[in-house]
Specification:
There is one protein chain. This protein has eleven helices and ten strands. The chain is of the alpha+beta class. The relative contact order is 0.10. The chain binds 3,4-dihydroxyphenylalanine.
């Protein structure tokens, strides 16, 4: 049995020298030292030995096992080092190769317009207000003098969460929220996303942005509205910009108007951008309807106000000469970095 142990020792050391990979080494370790390994088998067979022989063989097996254990550990270290060296040689990095450029983005045209318009109105003493995009039907419609049978509430163009909650179809509900919570004088603008069930084309998107404006105080008249919007149009689209008002209807203003600006490309002569009209429709506006003031707890006998709302995309398109709304949402840097 002594010879057998000696043989196992020799064989395993020899085989270990030939091993090239960690996997092979592990297999070899199992072969000799594993539960069913050769050395373990010898230990199991010790019952057959005489009581004198037993301790001698026992200690021999133990010392061989310790020796092999150490050799295996050493070999494993060697193999790992070799593998690392090999990887270091093959996986070299050429630090002289040009790197991939990290493109620096720019402020999105829609954000640019929002910031610019905010600056203009902050300069006129307005405050910026905010409201939820998931809005109560009550604020999106009822408080704004838009009763349940009004066509603006049509399910076809409004996203309802349920009967009482909608994705706001306009930024106008913020007016009602502010008026409920704040006593006049009120001077606010409110930028934000709005939602309508429109299919996407060159001038429509189910999500777009509006900017709402509201002023309520004593003695606010249509003249204030016109002066304010004229000032805004000139500051935003250029000093030569003309503005004109056409009568219109909105449930929450009386009288109501739509305002057009002279085409900033052709100056009013007619061109591709204004489709030959010379004018570009810009916004809806009017004097806040007495019912709306009353709904929000403001006495229309004492106070009056004006309001307006415009599409931010429309202004961005007009100002930057963009002819397809979809370009604003595709986030193609080649497009976006032009602004
Ligand atoms: N909310 C209107 C729309 O989405 C725009 C608008 C018109 C807002 C008149 C106003 C307003 O505040 O007074 O078409």
């Amino acid at each position: 049995m002594k010879e057998q142990v000696e043989q196992i020792k020799q064989n395993s050391i020899k085989e270990m020298e030939e091993v090239k990979t960690i996997k092979e080494l592990t297999e070899l370790k199992v072969k000799y030292l594993g539960k069913k390994g050769e050395l373990t088998t010898v230990l199991r067979g010790m019952g057959k030995l005489s009581p004198e022989e037993r301790p001698i063989i026992g200690s021999l097996v133990n010392s061989v096992r310790d020796l092999l254990d150490e050799k295996f550990t050493q070999k494993e270290k060697e193999l790992k080092r070799e593998e690392l060296n090999q990887r270091l040689q093959t996986e070299t990095i050429d630090i002289t190769e040009p790197s991939q450029k990290i493109e620096l983005g720019s402020i999105h045209p829609i954000t640019q317009i929002i910031q610019e318009v905010q600056d203009i109105f902050l300069g006129m003493g307005y405050q910026i207000a905010d409201g939820p995009e998931v809005e109560k039907t009550f604020y999106n419609f009822d408080q704004l003098n838009t009763p349940p049978d009004h066509p603006a509430r049509d399910v076809q163009d409004t996203f309802y969460i349920n009967d009482d909650i909608v994705l706001r179809s306009q930024t106008s509900p913020v007016q009602a929220r502010v008026m409920e919570n704040q006593k006049p004088p009120i001077k606010i603008i409110c930028p934000g996303a709005v939602y309508r069930s429109d299919s996407v084309d060159a001038t429509h998107s189910p999500v777009f942005h509006q900017m709402e404006g509201l002023v309520v105080d004593k003695n606010i008249t249509m003249t204030d509205l016109k002066g304010t919007l004229e000032m805004f149009a000139k500051k935003c689209l250029g000093e030569k910009t003309q503005i004109r008002f056409r009568p219109h209807h909105f449930p929450f203003t009386e009288p109501s108007a739509e305002a057009d600006v002279s085409c900033f490309v052709c100056g009013g002569k007619g061109c591709r951008v204004c489709k030959g009209e010379g004018w570009i429709e810009l916004l809806g506006c009017g004097m806040v309807h007495p019912n709306v003031l009353r709904n929000c707890g403001i006495d229309p006998e004492i106070y009056s106000g004006f309001a307006f709302g415009f599409g931010v995309e429309r202004v961005a398109m007009a100002k930057f000469g963009i002819d397809d709304l979809r370009l604003l949402y595709e986030n193609d840097v080649r497009f976006l970095k032009q602004f």
